[in-house]
Amino acid sequence: MEEKSQEGLKGEYGMTMKWYEELGITDSYYADDSVCIIHGDCRDVVSQLSEKSIDLVLTDPPYPREFGYTYNYLADYCPRVMTRGASLITIVGHYAIPEVLDKFKGKLKYRWMFCMAQFDGIHARMAMGIEVVWKPCLWFVKEAYPQGRGFIVDGFQVNGKGGQEKKNHKWEQDTSWAKFFVGKLARGDNDIILDPFLGSGTTALVARELGRKCIGIELEEKSCEIATIRYLKAQAEASK
Ligand SMILES: C[S@@+](CC[C@H](N)C(=O)[O-])C[C@H]1O[C@@H](n2cnc3c(N)ncnc32)[C@H](O)[C@@H]1O
């Protein structure tokens, strides 16, 4: 992982820059020392981010068939901003695995697939006549593989009604999803995580809890509001 400064850099007029300003972000919906939530289209925002500034992309794009194009956004825009050896983890619908792997060809190396198990959940979801009890999470890396024999296992059980409790957002993931990956793949205290499809802010919440930084981008203003309120409530709870 590359060295990053902890304190702000001196900007053009000697002003101390915030950590997210150093990355090229000029406008945020909410920002503090750990988290920066941006209301916008991830293509525009990721294009503004400094090269090689992100240590982990952890995300969950909308994955019904009609949103298949969102995986192009990941494959086309994220590699430039990732550091060497950084990982990109994305949840994907089972049906879309072949086409998503195709979109990443020549952009990032495919590393492995994780089983996000919902075996104890309420299995309301049926797809192509199959009762679905796990979600695939694809793992891509930039240039180099993270080292360490056995440092990660390729499956985990999500909590919260098998990951099907949607208190804040209809597509919300349980925090155990983000905890598993942040804990293993963003192991430096100063690591910066990017979630280009933030939704209700699960990745931001977990990044803060585990002492990492997070840039979260969300297209819908309402979801930015939900993510910010959820995040601030969690901070208030933690400081009681
Ligand atoms: C599956 S949800 C993410 C849920 C999130 N993991 C959570 O736990 O709440 C995907 C989100 O991506 C957002 N989205 C869709 N297209 C986008 C784009 N081009 N840029 C940024 N966000 C986008 C949607 O509004 C939606 O909130």
Describe the structure.
The protein has a single domain, classed as Rossmann fold (3-Layer(aba) Sandwich). It has 8 helices and 11 strands. With 240 residues, it is α/β, with parallel strands linked by helices. S-adenosylmethionine binds next to strand 11.
**Going across the major beta sheet, what is the strand order?**
1-2-11-10-3-4-8-5-9
Name given to the CATH homologous superfamily: Vaccinia Virus protein VP39
How many strand segments? 11
> pLDDT under 50 segments (min length 5)?
none
| Overall CATH architecture | 3-Layer(aba) Sandwich
Summed up, the helix count is 8
Small molecules (ligands, ions, cofactors) in the structure: S-adenosylmethionine
| Global Rg | 17 Å
Helicity level, as a percent range?
A: 25-40%
Characterize the largest beta sheet: strand count, sense, and whether it forms a barrel. Answer: 9 strands, mixed
Question: What overall form do the CA principal axes indicate?
Answer: globular
What's the number of structural domains?
Answer: 1
Looking at the structure, the CATH topology is: Rossmann fold
Given the helix and strand composition, which structural class is it? alpha/beta
| CATH class assignment | Alpha Beta
- How far is the first residue's CA from the last residue's CA? 35 Å
Index terms:
240 residues, alpha/beta, Rossmann fold, 8 helices, globular, binds S-adenosylmethionine
